[in-house]
């Protein structure tokens, strides 16, 4: 059995990975700063070439996903999510079944417009508020909400990050891309 040793670039990459893991676990550094640190560290050490280092910024999938996350933050800052949570609370009352039904309906619709990941990150604080104010166990709400947001995300091309990336890879391989409408004819083609 051949024994291969790490190159300097391998050790540098492991070191960067270790520093990133420490930053993530400590939760003291914002995620966007960690992303910039990774780019700078890989670029300064020369592990990744300058051309490859910034090539992701021209990637359609990255731009669409970042736009969906920005749209999600806009919904939070504009107060739309607060208004929506107040409406949901008013309509559902103290009934867990009605609350879950409304959350699933809203989750499916919203995650078809924005990324399912963005939707869950937006509505997690809302659901935590339901647990505090309505005394409903969060464990009974989170899984149905996550599944609904994933299913809603599959209704449109922008709703799921994996659909965006898969579509771009298909187009790059000169294979017919996924349809952008909720039609699932391509599954049987």
Question: Can you describe what's shown?
Answer:
- The protein has 9 helices and no strands.
- It is an all-alpha fold and 189 residues long.
- The protein starts with 7 loop residues before the first helix and ends in a 17-residue tail after the last helix.
The residue ranges in which pLDDT falls below 50 over 5 or more consecutive positions are 181-189
Helix content: over 70%
Helix and strand composition category: mainly alpha
Shape: globular
Rg to the nearest angstrom? 21 Å
Largest sheet: none
Number of distinct helices: 9
Q: Beta-strand percentage?
A: under 5%
Average predicted confidence as pLDDT: 78
How far from one another are the termini? Answer: 46 Å
Please name the defining characteristics of this protein.
mainly alpha; 189 residues; disordered C terminus; globular; 9 helices
Summarize the structure.
The protein contains 9 helices and no strands. It has 189 residues and is mainly alpha-helical.
Helix and strand topology:
Layout: H1 8-26, H2 31-45, H3 50-53, H4 60-77, H5 80-92, H6 96-113, H7 116-134, H8 139-153, H9 161-172
Helix pairs in contact: 1-2, 4-7, 4-9, 5-6, 5-7, 6-7, 6-8, 7-8
